[in-house]
Amino acid sequence: MQPCGGSCPFYPDGGSGLLKQDDQDGFREFVAARLTSLRSLAYVTCGDWYSAEDAVANTLAKLYPRWSKLDRPDLYAQTMVFRAAIDETRRPWWRRERPAGDALPEMAQADPADTTDERIRVRAALMAVPPRQRAVLFLRYYQGLSVEEAAAVLGCAAGTVKSQTQHGLAKLRAVLADRIELVDEPPDRRPASDATTNIGEWANAGI
Amino acid sequence: MRVYDVVDLATSEAPPLRHDADDIVRAAVRRQRRRRGAMACGAAAVTAVALSVAALAPDLVRTTAPEEAAGAPANALQVAVPGAMQVPADPFTFTFGGYGVGRFQVKAPLVASTAYQIAPVVEDGDTDLAAYLVVYRPGAFNPDGLRNARRLIIGGRPARLQELTDIRFHKVLAWQYVDGAWATLETYSDKPDNPSPRHLEQIALGLAPANPAPLKLPFKMSYVPKGFKPVVLGSHAMAGMDGIAAADDGDFGGAVFARPAPRPVGLTKPWPQSAGPALPGSFEIFVVPNANSNQALPGGQRPPASPKCSATLCNTWSPDGKVSIQIATEGRALSKSEMIKVLNGITLASVDNDDTWFDAATAIPVAP
To answer: Which end of chain B is less congested by CB atoms within 10 angstroms, N or C?
Structure first.
């Protein structure tokens, strides 16, 4: 539909709001590349795989019209996904109909090294950490974000990220204590980002 | 073990993705087209966003439909009547209506079970609060099951207050509203003092009886597999807590059946549903707008002639494709052929006209 009849002063794209083909291809590549890690961020935050995927799908659909204007779509997407996943934790009983994915047959797999037990234990320990602290640990230790980048994603001060990191680590260490020792190791730092100057631009934009 | 390894292991058994990049791009384009179209037409853009995104991820879409249009059933107009709350023989009866206390609104009840009725509770201008009021039938609630709860007196009757931080700031106020029967107000909030215990008490004191009104369903059934009994029903909402959480979504109705039906005694919270460990030996029916469904028919696609099934669920649609009906079985409670038989025995009312809806007692051919 062309809401402005093909000539619209507010929408240079003719009013469709759709991306140019190159941008659309870029958006598709971004989605394909980031879908899994965004879903993991949402899962670590909200604790449910299906809610996590819905949060990511919904978020990416909202991100589409802004895609070509973003300097750091990766951080922007993480911010939106984090907030959507936090929303999921607000209604802890919440589901809709059974998603078709629930019907997938479970496949029996050999577990010679008791990795399933350890996975369940580790997952339970991580989920015992409050959601925001889990997200901080994910962003800093798993995604390798700097304190400033994590603060921008989470919409908080760098000091808050540092304190949430400490609290999250302490909780995780306490829960794992009797079974698994948590190694004291600083998060892997990626090379300094050349785009961190843009963070504040959208972090303060009330996304 | 490093933190990286903890996260890696904890996320290592992800289920397969249900949507790929192409699905998401298509949904985004569809959403954008509808959004711009709606803006151009002067229509409510919020509705367009909700509808278009719902096609991909309705779980996250919570529309802000007006109270009268979406969640509020006909019995929202129930008025308080003097006297004590009644306890009708038919548990699928609403015995209270919505009411306001300051900036808090207790909505009309949407869900009833053999043990309780549930109404959503909202706060004006605060979408972060998740709260609900549960009015249990006599004997259904066990106040001693609330651990570490403070003992209080509310309205001259015993009460308990549990304050937790397990999920956000989580409070449960339980109070005896008539001899042997309790109600609870459960809240999840980002703010430690809002709602405060005083707010909870005021809301509790506002609970008043209304003329009993039978729960109405937008469908009736001609077949229920042998031994199953209705346990939880939803009117203008999915059954159970899912229906309360999605109270504003404009869903039509739902029902949970179980074999054996759980005894309505000793509860400290509503029965779990699809969100948690489900009732064993149960199946559930969802009747929702196709646009709300997480397995919606794509726009313009004709409904299939027969139900689409997997091992644990079957979906079917009204002939115009606007209403989605799902039956889902917990474990192996129902075979695929039984699920289809149940679906084939369902008759839809006119979902937009409450006058055509069926009282629960006539909609379901077996008694609770």
So the answer is: N
pTM for this model (two decimals) = 0.61
Count CB pairs under 8 A between chains A and B.
Answer: 229
Peptide bond into B195 cis (omega under 30): yes
Count up the domains in chain B and report the number: 3
B152's tokens: 């209080």
In the structure, what pLDDT confidence band is assigned to residue B273 with cuts at 50, 70 and 90? Answer: low
Domain extent at residue B157? 74-214
- Out of A118-127, B66-75, B258-267, least confident range: B66-75
- Which one of B19, B52, B242 has the shortest CB-CB distance to A96? B242
What are the phi and psi torsion angles at B129 (to 5°)?
Answer: -75, 130
Please tell me what DSSP assigns to residue A141: I
Instruction: Say if residue B293 is in the same domain as residue B191.
Output: no
Residue ranges and CATH numbers for the domains of chain A are 18-91 (1.10.1740), 115-195 (1.10.10.10)
- CATH number where B300 lies: 3.30.200.100
Together in a domain, B125 and B193: yes
Q: How many CB atoms lie within 10 A of CB A49?
A: 21
Q: Which residues of chain A have a CB within 8 Å of the CB of B241?
A: 93-94
Q: CA B9, CA A79: separation in Å to the nearest integer?
A: 23
Tokens found for residue B83: 């006297």
Tell me whether residues B37 and A99 touch, CB distance under 8 A: no
Query: Which pLDDT belongs to residue B190?
Result: 76
For residue B31, give how far its alpha carbon lies from the nearest alpha carbon of chain A (Å): 7
Establish whether this prediction's ipTM goes over 0.90.
no
Give residue for tokens 């009833």: B112
CA–CA gap between residue B329 and residue B364 (Å, rounded): 18
Same-domain status, B210 and B237: no
Q: Are B147 and B163 spatial neighbours (Cβ–Cβ below 8 Å)? A: no
Residues B351 and B306 reside in one and the same domain: yes
Q: Which two tokens stand for residue A4?
A: 């402005």
Between positions 24 and 83 of B, the ones with CB within 8 A of A are 24-25, 27-29, 31-33, 35-37, 39-41, 52-53, 56-61
B184 touches chain A (CB under 8 A): no
Nearest to B28 by CA among A30, A49, A59: A59
Measuring CA to CA, how many Å separate B125 from each of A75, A80, B137, B138? Answer: 29, 22, 32, 35
Bridge partners, residue B258, by sequence: B229, B282
Quick check: helix, strand or coil at residue A203?
Answer: helix
- Which of B187, B214, B241 is where one domain is finished? B214
* C-alpha dist (Å) from residue B339 to A49, B314, B329, B336, B360: 26, 7, 8, 5, 20
- Please report the sign of the dihedral spanned by the C-alpha atoms of residue B213, residue B217, residue B221, residue B226: negative
* pLDDT tens digit sequence for B48-87: 333 333 333 332 222 223 333 333 443 444 555 667 788 9
